Amino acid sequence: MSNKFLTISHLKKNYQTQKDEIEALKDINLEVKEGSFISIVGPSGCGKSTLLSILANLESKSGGSVVFNKKNVVIGYMLQKDCLFPWLTILDNCLLGLKIKGTLNKESKDYVLHLLKTYGLEDFIYHYPSSLSGGMRQRVALIRTLAIKPDILLLDEPFSALDAMTRVALSDDVYKMIKLENKTAIMVTHDISEAVSLSDQVVVFTKRPAVIKKIYDIELTGRSTPTQNRKCKEFNYYYDMIWRDLDVHI
Amino acid sequence: MSTSSKEHQQYLKKQRKEKIIIIIFQLIILVFFLALWEIAARLGLINTFLSSSPSLVVKTIGTLFVENDLLTHIGITIYETVIGFAISSILGLLVATLMWWNKRLAKIIDPYLTVLNSLPKVALGPLIIIWVGASINSIVFMSLLICVFVSIINIYNDFKQTDNSYLTLLKSFNASKKQLYFKVILPSNVKNIINNLKINISMTFIGL
């Protein structure tokens, strides 16, 4: 539980445009322990998502280093939109990553079927995404991500496209799925209560160019599911502290 | 679905009725137009040498059919349409794919595509007959010229507008460019490509 999984040091990212250079990430230093759930909050446009893109190898970095404690780390990346392909069935959508990676075989397919069954989507495997609700679609998206057996999950505002009720219910589900499969996860969110209720650690970014303002180790008495965690007595304390850190002005 | 309620049956009945009413009105308009045309021609209100009349058209089709082998000519026209349509559609898809594959190529040929597309192709008719010969080939070439640039431009634009998050998702699985094309670009644009084919059919006719 406590071994280091990922070390980010002096990470820097600049975006180049015709007019000028935009400094998104200035100096990010972060250690992620294996099996932990980390949330990143910060003002909008501060470069939270940029960090995930860099970790997922979708963007290059301008400086610093990202070191995983093992080679050939498999990264699962989940976007804000579920991105289910409307022309594929639920099952085929879930198998997409395996097909792309060329690791689709009997064993990996069985694993996907097992996940679909465990998370109540068994009856829909031959349906198309359009017949599913937003919450179900997001669960399918998570299964598609888990299918490739990632060592780390990167969640980019995974719930923000959902309505408030589905959001809370689904965060419970997703938390359970991630804990059950024993994954390390980094989530970007702008919902403070979501961050506090799901995470072991909450990292607060400053506005752009981002550095880490503060890291909170979330210690809740009687920690259980995210919904229950919202009732813990420390919850409001963390909420207020982070809110003050974010220093929101409209 | 087989055990439909009374309400559902009523709904279906209403839908059917609506369809029939629309067809009836369409027929009425057609008959009214033809009748007006015929009457105007008979009364000498319009010049039948210029605008003919329904009865004359029917008579002419009859004589063409008997004396001049109308069916063969229709056959040739269909043949030309199909060939022109097929070649320009395939070529359009192919070039659009190359352009998507190589953004630099796309930027280089972009102004040339615009220029070629805005050429007054019908005015080039005589030249085409000289170049290609007065045969089916020149007709096919003409319809090709009319369709192909529009196809390329349209399909390429559709490719470019493909939802970026789909591509990001596949890239997060380390997808190759070929996988991006066959898993996202092509399947997500099937509808657009078919729409383009529909436009091509009518454009091909202009070429004929």
Describe what you observe in this structure.
The complex is a heterodimer of chains A (250) and B (208). Chain A is of the alpha/beta class. Chain A contains eight helices and nine strands. Chain A has a domain at 1-73 and 179-224 and 234-250: P-loop containing nucleotide triphosphate hydrolases (Rossmann fold). The radius of gyration of chain A is 18 Å and the shape is globular. Chain B is mainly alpha-helical. Chain B is built from ten helices and no strands. Chain B is flat, with a radius of gyration of 25 Å. The two termini of chain B are 48 Å apart. Chain A binds chain B through residues 56-58, 75-77, 79, 81, 83, 85, 87, 96-97, 99-101, 148, and chain B through 163, 165-166, 168-175, 179, 183-184, 187-188, 190.
Features:
heterodimer; A: 250 residues; alpha/beta; Rossmann fold; globular; B: 208 residues; mainly alpha; MetI-like fold; 2 domains; 10 helices; flat
